[in-house]
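Following up on my earlier message about pyridoxal-5'-phosphate. Here are the inputs again, as you asked, copied directly from the submission form:
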Amino acid sequence: MHPESLMMSYGYKPELSEGAIKCPIFQTSTFVFKSAEEGKAFFELAYGLRAPHEKEEMGLIYSRINNPDLEILEGRIALWEKAGDCAVFESGMSAITTVMLEFLQPGDLLLTSSPVYGGTDHFIKHFLPKFGINFLEFKPHETYDQIMDRIEKSGMGDRLAMIFVETPANPTNALIDLADMRKIGDHFSTEEKRVLLAVDNTYMGPLWQKPLDWGADFSIYSATKYLGGHSDVIAGAVVGSTEIVKRVKTLRTFLGNMAGPWTGWLLLRSLETLKIRMEEQARNAQKVAHWLENHPKVEKVFYLGLLKPEDGEEYELFKRQYTSPGAMLSFDVKGGETEAFQFLNSLKLIHLAVSLGSTESLAQHPATMTHAGVDPAHREELGITGKMVRLSIGVENHEDIIRDIEQALETIG
Ligand SMILES: *Cc1c(COP(=O)(O)O)cnc(C)c1O
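Thanks, got it. Here's what our run produced:
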């Protein structure tokens, strides 16, 4: 069956919950053992003291280790990417940082695309170096050869342990070729050490980009965005093979950054409408992008749905790696920050807020908001200038979204 058909039922047994059709919120810290022997057996499995007997499953112990809302949620998120397993977290940042802390060691090199999410950028540049972990950045549009050249020149190729990328890049929608990333990883892998590929899939996943199919080891989410989709929860998720997620969950147990039962329950509810929300948002975004493209006060629109065969490699990559142009778009107004601010201050339906992927449309100003921390010269180079506005398109009627944008553009004097 397709994942959308299973989001209402997969992994949940009503007979274990008084016949309730919906999974209750297991708002409990600990679970009662039927006997001391059972408690002993659960701990033997939790600590890996022995292999499970045939058909034996680990029982519920304590909500930092396991909880039904989280286990059911993890099973359902994994379905979208046909993955072995998933681990959910109390934030996207904790999902990202737990993966880096578990799989990087002092002396290692981490290769990352740039820009990445501000929190991720800070962690890589200001926290990991304290533990002797080096980083090397590349920009979208750099070719395979240029990136290989950078690694060779750094003299740290033999220490490359992980590649971490965000594609499409926020907020310009520039693309990174995941097959190339895997190739680079394979080039520097040895028999003892596989160079791991981690993809922050928040922008396009899990519907429209499947990093695991391109050889990624991790597909990581800020579940605050599309997975949650209602701007009412902060959460994160890591999706991958059973073995790799097991290591992530083990560190999560000791960091204690798992999602709580209430967060888990909210996400279970959100997943039931994930596909229809995302599809409607993308349909709306396409209409908005086409409308903006022809507006006299708009200089340029950055949206994957506007790529044409004439765009060559970028268009080919879009067709190969994505099944939709998504619901995130940016555009440059004619003018600069003043004009962009006039537009943002005049919106009535669309809210002026950061974050993305929610049912309501949001607008923000990357240069002074989400990307304020990026070095100004680097920001300019990436095309994130004062005239750029980013939109996350919601599920409202597209005519109302467009009318709101139209009246706000008209106020630019
Ligand atoms: C929001 C976001 C994050 C951080 O997630 P939180 O849930 O806010 O911790 C990471 N990566 C991307 C691409 C994001 O948009």
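One observation from looking it over: The first strand starts at residue 85 and ends at 89. Hope that helps, and feel free to reply on this thread.
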